[in-house]
């Protein structure tokens, strides 16, 4: 049995969308983040990092969004969420998954949790602003590389597009939302048109405008 620990709109959104895209049977386990359930003893037994998301697959327990995503893509090969193993497209897929989780995603921790990044709390605002500026630069570079392609991998939709969608979404209340970049907005619209994505947003109780 697959179980995804989630909290609405957080990094669990990627595996959640993927499981629905794959038509998988799974259980959703809500983490009451407002009451710090993810910092509690019970959750930390599964994810010592106290972060969301977490996937349980039988006896297997996986943390880290990208690792969970790769596992789901491998487990449901017919979903087409990742290109064939060993193909050049698969390498491109790895490139984007690792880039997104390793480069823009951590900047969001600095944006949303700047107090964790400083000793002197009066410096938190500067840390936040700098993270926002770096994110702007990263989205500009992603936009350049996406160009007029339909998806990050070209014609083939993949989980990397869902990952990018989530990261774009997180910028919606920032001074320059990534969606203001036309080709990123077009990708967002294509992702939003997917029934599995709409279902995910509905189940997570995310209100429009979603992004
Ligand atoms: N690299 C980790 C980061 C996870 C992460 O930072 N999750 C955030 C939500 S998007 C979280 O758990 N925030 C709550 C907290 O840190 O207290 C992953 O992708 O799984």
From TrEMBL:
- Please state every residue range assigned to the domain named GST N-terminal: 1-80
Q: Which InterPro entries does the UniProt entry name for this protein?
A: Glutathione-S-Trfase_C-like (IPR010987), Glutathione-S-Trfase_C_sf (IPR036282), Glutathione_S-Trfase (IPR040079), Glutathione_S-Trfase_N (IPR004045), GST_C (IPR004046), Thioredoxin-like_sf (IPR036249)
Residue limits of the GST C-terminal domain?
Answer: 86-210
Kindly give the Pfam families that the UniProt entry links to this protein: GST_C, GST_N
Would you identify the family this protein belongs to, as annotated?
Answer: Belongs to the GST superfamily.
**The name this protein goes by in its record:** Glutathione S-transferase family protein
The species this protein belongs to is: Microvirga alba
Q: List the top taxonomic levels of the source.
A: Bacteria, Pseudomonadati, Pseudomonadota, Alphaproteobacteria, Hyphomicrobiales
């Amino acid at each position: 049995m697959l179980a995804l620990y989630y909290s609405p709109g957080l990094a669990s959104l990627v595996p959640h969308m993927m499981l629905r895209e794959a038509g998988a049977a799974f259980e959703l386990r809500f983490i009451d983040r407002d009451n710090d359930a993810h910092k509690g003893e019970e959750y930390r037994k599964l994810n010592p990092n106290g972060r969301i998301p977490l996937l349980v697959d039988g006896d297997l327990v996986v943390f880290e969004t990208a690792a969970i995503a790769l596992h789901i893509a491998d487990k449901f090969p017919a979903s087409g969420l990742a290109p064939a193993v060993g193909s050049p497209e698969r390498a491109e897929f790895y490139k984007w998954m690792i880039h997104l989780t390793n480069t823009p995603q951590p900047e969001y921790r600095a944006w949303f949790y700047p107090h964790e990044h400083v000793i002197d709390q009066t410096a938190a605002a500067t840390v936040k602003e700098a993270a926002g500026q770096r994110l702007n630069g990263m989205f500009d570079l992603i936009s350049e590389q996406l160009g007029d392609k339909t998806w990050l991998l070209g014609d083939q939709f993949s989980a990397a597009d869902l990952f990018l969608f989530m990261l774009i979404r997180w910028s919606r209340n920032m001074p320059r939302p990534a969606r203001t970049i036309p080709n990123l907005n077009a990708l967002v619209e294509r992702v939003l048109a997917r029934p599995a994505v709409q279902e995910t947003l509905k189940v997570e109780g995310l209100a429009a405008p979603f992004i």
